[in-house]
Task: inverse folding
């Protein structure tokens, strides 16, 4: 922590530097951030009319001259390292210069949007898809640097910038502790330099560092981004001891409600293995693992979406399905009732039609045919007509003998007597 006196002196220096024109080209504006040995200002390149970021080495007092040489050495290493790098996810170096008082400065690409540390306030975290995207970009930046023999050795939230606007991108900055191929960089054997939250065990022990050191720090960053907490917390000594000996907590212990792909926690735990031999060997391997996790997550989302569409109707359609289930048997019942009612109506109409016809004087004349008997209505229509009751049965004539009516005989009264004393009519 900085004491109040040092903070006031630093704020005074920031105020004095604002508006200063460096080398007749870079006009300093407000400070963007401050580290252990330098301050970064937003500035205007008056020659090219563009915004830039200027990193200025803190001035030293006579009692700090030995340390000043060491810091100048780190500054030089950072300038040399950035000069070799040209990558979409690594901040670009534009220029390097010296102040009138002998101090050094770097002119770099200005990235509006702030650091990942500023985006993630206390306890906040990023979604799994966003984390996977940023992890992929940071891995590509580290792979690019590692292939050129550069080990960052200070990967942390404050050294990751996020761009604004469409297509958020991460950019790795601050190569002040960079280790170049063939040397240990601006550190001595046994020295501990870095950030306690993200330091790898071999870095704490002062042993040889390599690309796996950066991968350990990347694992810590992903743990913090996903869960909202660092894996180890406390004072500096406690955190360093935990990186050396404590087991990495599970996501469920730190963030029980976290929802992320199954393989992502396994990847983070492997990145944070105590022994470098148990970690991924390179950023290439991490990229392959990230691609596999993304593919599995996409398949799981697609499968869930298809299964939900097949088995579970949307909320808006659920009511429609319920109405269909209720309407089908209801419709069958209504249809049956209608048919039954129609049949009953037909039977009733057949029984009431004859009576209606006899009672109504305005009913139309019936069609020619036998007149139905009055009682009973229905059977009278269907039964054959009864034989005439008044007509006597006459024996049919013989076919060979024609029927001849005998001539009348004169008798009393001039009439012909029949067999029974009646008259025989000629047919």
Result:
């Amino acid at each position: 922590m900085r004491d109040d006196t040092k903070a006031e002196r630093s704020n005074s220096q920031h105020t004095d530097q604002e508006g200063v024109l460096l080398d007749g080209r870079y006009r300093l504006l407000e400070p963007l951030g401050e580290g252990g040995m330098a301050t970064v200002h937003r500035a205007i390149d008056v020659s090219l009319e563009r915004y830039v970021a200027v990193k200025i080495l803190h001035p030293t007092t006579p009692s700090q001259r030995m340390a000043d040489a060491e810091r100048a050495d780190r500054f030089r290493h950072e300038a040399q390292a950035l000069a070799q790098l040209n990558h979409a996810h690594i901040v670009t170096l534009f220029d390097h210069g010296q102040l009138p008082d002998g101090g050094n400065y770097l002119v770099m690409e200005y990235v509006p949007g702030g650091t990942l540390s500023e985006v993630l306030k206390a306890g906040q975290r990023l979604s799994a898809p966003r984390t996977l995207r940023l992890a992929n970009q940071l891995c590509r930046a580290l792979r690019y640097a590692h292939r050129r023999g550069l080990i960052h050795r200070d990967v942390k939230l404050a050294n990751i910038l996020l761009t604004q606007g469409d297509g958020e991108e991460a950019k790795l900055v601050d190569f002040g502790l960079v280790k170049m191929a063939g040397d240990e960089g601006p550190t001595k054997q046994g020295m501990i330099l870095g950030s306690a939250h993200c330091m790898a065990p071999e870095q704490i022990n002062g042993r040889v560092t390599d690309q796996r050191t950066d991968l350990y720090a990347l694992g810590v960053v992903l743990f913090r981004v996903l869960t909202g907490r660092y894996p180890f917390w406390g004072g500096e000594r406690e955190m360093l001891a935990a990186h050396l000996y404590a087991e990495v907590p599970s996501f469920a212990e730190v963030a029980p409600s976290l929802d992320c792909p199954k393989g992502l926690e396994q990847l983070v735990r492997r990145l944070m293995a105590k022994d470098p031999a148990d970690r991924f060997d390179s950023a290439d391997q991490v990229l392959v693992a990230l691609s596999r996790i993304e593919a599995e997550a996409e398949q799981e989302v697609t499968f869930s979406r298809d299964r939900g569409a097949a088995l579970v109707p949307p909320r808006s359609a659920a009511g429609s399905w319920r109405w269909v289930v209720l309407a089908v048997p209801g419709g069958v019942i209504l249809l049956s009732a209608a048919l039954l009612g129609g049949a009953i109506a037909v039977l009733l109409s057949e029984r009431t039609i004859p009576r209606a016809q006899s009672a109504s004087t305005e009913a139309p004349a019936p069609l020619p045919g036998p007149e139905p008997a009055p009682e009973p209505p229905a059977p009278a229509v269907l039964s054959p007509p009864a034989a005439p009751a008044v007509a006597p049965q006459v024996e049919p004539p013989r076919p060979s003998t024609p029927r001849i009516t005998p001539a009348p005989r004169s008798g009393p009264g001039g009439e012909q007597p029949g067999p029974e004393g009646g008259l025989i009519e000629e047919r």
User: Anything to note?
Assistant: Residues 167 and 394 are 119 Å apart (CA to CA). Residues 19-110 form a domain with the Phosphorylase Kinase; domain 1 fold (CATH 3.30.200.20).
